[in-house]
Amino acid sequence: MDVLDVMVPSEERETLDDDIRPAWTKGMTCPVVACGGRKYDNYSQVRLHWNQVHLPYITYFCCERCNFRSPRRNQVQRHYRQRHTLSLEEAKLVSVAGKELHNAKFVDPGDKTMPIVKVSPGMALRREEAAARRLMESGRFDTSVLISRTITVARDQEVVPLGRGQAIIQDKSHWLRGSAMSRENYEPVETDFSQFDSE
Length: 199
Prior knowledge:
- Helix content is 36%, strand content 19%.
- With 199 residues, the chain is of the alpha+beta class.
- The strands form 3 sheets. The chain has a 4-stranded antiparallel sheet with strand order 6-7-8-9. Strands 4-3-5 form a 3-stranded antiparallel sheet, covered by helices on one side.
- The longest helix is centred in the middle third of the chain and has 18 residues, at 121-138.
- It is elongated.
């Protein structure tokens, strides 16, 4: 028996894998209000900012001969080669130990989280479907989610709503491969979704 089976209810266990972080878009500002309004043109800038400002402790790699420190091990090795004139092999052999130090620039993010790099349309749809499935199981399902747009059932199928609880399940892979003749002869399977109608 897994620890999660004992400690976490089944409804909550399903949501553990959901990623609730905001999706990063080009020109997005930091979600923490105290940071100001600087816009970031690429995700690596956002990640660097988050690691430098919103983590309470940072792992620094320090030079054993002087006060130089950096959050990147390779920068300390380069420092050894340039400042202390060690060869590349000698610099790699020097033990560069990481030390976790308090971040002097720390700004508490509160309940905000670092944005994720990208949400593809398929991933966003799967997230919406998972949320709708959880709502349906809990009895709080909104039928407008099902009827208002195309819902993906599986990677090779999609449900096209027709209104009043009726929908068609189409096999997408059939449309993507095969001749034009086979596409013309394809008959989608109709499915009754009347159980989702709100009275």
